[in-house]
Amino acid sequence: MKRYAFSSLHLRFQVPYSSHLGYSQNAVSFFFFFGSLSRNFSSVVYSGTRPFPDYSPKKPTIRDSEFVLHLSTAIKQRRSEPLHRILRSFESKFRSDHIIWVLMKIKNDCKLVIDFFDWACLRKDPSLEVRCIVVQIAVSSKKPKMARGLISDFWTKPNLDVGLSFSHFVERLIYTYKDWGCNPLVFDIFFQVLVEIGMFDEARKLFDKMLNYGVVISVGSCNFLLSRLSNISNGADIALKIFNEYPEVGVCWNTASYNIIIHTLCRLGKVKEAHSFLLQMESKGCLPDAIGYSTVVDGYCHVGELQSALELIRDMGTKGLKPNPFTYNSIIIYLCRNNKVVEAERVLREMINHGIVPDNVVYTTLIDGFCKSGNLPAANRLSNEMRSQKLIPDTITYTALICGLCRSGKVIEAEKFFHEMLSKGLNPDEVTYTTLIDGYCKAGQMKEAFTLHNQMVQMGLTPNIVTYTTLADGLCKRGEVETANELLHEMCGKGLKLNIYTYNSLVNGLCKAGNIMQAVKLMEDMEMAGLHPDTITYTTLMDAYCKLGQMVRAHELLREMLDKGLQPTVVTFNVLMNGFCMSGMLEDGKRLLNWMLDKGIKPNATTYNSLMKQYSVGNNMKATTEIYRGMCAQEIMPDSDTYNILIKGHCRARNMKEACYFHTEMVEKGFSLRASSYNALIKGLYKKRKFTEAKTLFEEMRKEGLVPDREIYNIFVDLNYGEGNMEMTLELCDEAIERCLLGKTHNEQK
């Protein structure tokens, strides 16, 4: 490529490079457009560059000159009267030729030029030359937005011959440049419009064309091209090529340019290369900023290299750069995705300690993470904290909370959040509705589920295959298989096709309803429909057989699954583990756990909980503790079930010191005791004559709305009666009668 000598007065813009930072493409265009006003454009012509041509329009006749003079005088002398009324007398003699001659007379008043141009357009179709003249005047009058509109209007015309029009437009813009404006910003605006409408090849041709005249398109506009290219398929390679070639012809890339390329490389999964670019910036005269570092941090998180991401954050500190919410959110999302929600909250606290205010996205990510891990108290705590920070929960936040509550069977609370969401003026989407419908279905409240489905349709939302699958699943679990089939026929009638998830949901529903033979038949129907049962299908059936104690049949299904080349998941092994434990085959369960570890299959908390629960029920707390230690050694985070199992087990074994230790740790991690664990702790403490501690837990339990068992009520009725506290004695008696004797309890008494 030929090299050119250029002025050093090139633009340096700091531009947003991605919509994930909150900038739309229109905002990007707006930024380039108006940012350019504060910079000097240089059109220095050196030897070897072509001069701009002189403008030489056709000369008017004497009669035309007189007409143009009268017309332009009338335009200049107008006051507040509309132009069309003043020029009405000129309309009959007005020709297209007159436009340029009138513009020569009024070119120093941009407003008059635009008004006259609009008037002329309604009467005569202006030539391309006229349009380019008006564009030049608008730019030289510092009206770039107006110039942009004039160019855009031309390029959005229907049935435009792009190739021919581009050639003519460039030619006319160059021809009118010297005498009508002489401001190189006009070429930048044209370049930006071409990029905006996706004419990337033409934009690059314009760039090359202007080099012949000694004009370099500004770095801000070139950044815009890089940004748009990086977001289209196969555009990344072109963006990288431009980045490597343009410095040879005078483009001085800035920090924003490097950030765009870094973002592009990370999106392609080339994070090491992006990191290398980040380190090279200083040697190229550009200082890296928090955006560049945060982008690479996010890239490392996406490819699972957390340590590299954390090291990069430390490097930011040594460079005097402050991480932003996006930096921390990348780490938080990674940790939540890998079920390390407690560590993710620690990152949030570190973020706050560094004076960085978390945004809506950070809180919502954590709330969703805690909901998915079943830790609803922590999710609610963060939701309240979010509100205290004056951050308003959005549809995604509410949907996460509704989903978490529905998974935990707390549909009434989920419904309250749903109505609160509506009262705040937020519009639930298909995901929100389907989530709550799923909650109703799992709770067996099919009437409410279908009512919500109808409401969803009335709101103009279209139920999707997930919605119908959820409803069909709920019907199957209630044994209403025929109704479920009718619903699926309705779904097919709407053009929705049954997929593997629908079949799996039906298989699951039939298994839950005890119709295993029908579930097996449905699996055969799947094959006939051209859909092959997957790991989830087999795991669901294995679970049903395990719960019936038919471990031989479960093993047969596992072998059949492996023969088909399907890979078991940790859920598959958890199903087998639960089957072994329920059948009292604890040694087989331990062998399965060791085999998983040997094969590199990482168990989760559920795997260990199954074994711990059975050993705990058998009062073998030594074995239970060993399994717990093995779990911690594998860096697997205990969940709510883990702590409840340990606490109840140690209470039964009268190891109250250990039980209290696990209770403290559990609370610190944001988990809550179940009613059965409260009962076990209170009884254990009472037997150890720790009355104050027992009473504190009893009051806490009642405050949480959980129901103590009869023995607990008897203990505290006797204690209060013995202390002469008749008012509390009677209150507890009434409460015990209502909740225990009448069986009015909604608690899980495990």
Structural class: mainly alpha
| Uncertain runs | 1-47, 742-750
Average pLDDT over all residues: 86
Total count of strands:
0
**How much helix is in the residues?**
55-70%
**What is the CA-atom radius of gyration, in angstroms?**
36 Å
The shape, in one word, is: elongated
> Main sheet?
none
Distance between the termini: 78 Å
- Tally of separate helices: 40
Q: Strand-residue fraction?
A: under 5%
Keywords: Repeat
Organism: Nelumbo nucifera (Sacred lotus)
InterPro entries: PPR_P_subfamily (IPR050872), PPR_rpt (IPR002885), TPR-like_helical_dom_sf (IPR011990)
Protein name: Pentatricopeptide repeat-containing protein At1g05670, mitochondrial
Description:
Keywords: Repeat. Belongs to the PPR family. P subfamily. PPR repeats lie at residues 183-217, 254-288, 289-323, 324-358, 359-393, 394-428, 429-463, 464-498, 499-533, 534-568, 569-603, 604-638, 639-673, 674-708. It comes from Nelumbo nucifera (Sacred lotus). InterPro entries: PPR_P_subfamily, PPR_rpt, TPR-like_helical_dom_sf. The protein is mostly helical and 750 residues long. The protein has a domain at 673-750. Helices cover 68% and strands 0% of the residues. It has 40 helices and no strands. It has helices spanning 25-35, 62-77, 83-86, 97-106, 110-123, 128-140, 144-155, 162-180, 185-196, 200-211, 219-230, 235-245, 255-267, 271-280, 290-302, 306-318, 325-337, 341-353, 360-372, 376-388, 395-407, 411-423, 430-442, 446-458, 465-477, 481-493, 500-512, 516-528, 535-547, 551-563, 570-582, 586-598, 605-617, 621-633, 640-652, 656-668, 675-687, 691-703, 710-722, 726-741. α24 packs antiparallel against α25 (465-477) and α35 packs parallel to α37. The longest helix has 19 residues, at 162-180. It is elongated, with a radius of gyration of 36 Å. The protein starts with 24 loop residues before the first helix and ends in a 9-residue tail after the last helix. Residues 1-47 and 742-750 have low confidence and may be disordered.
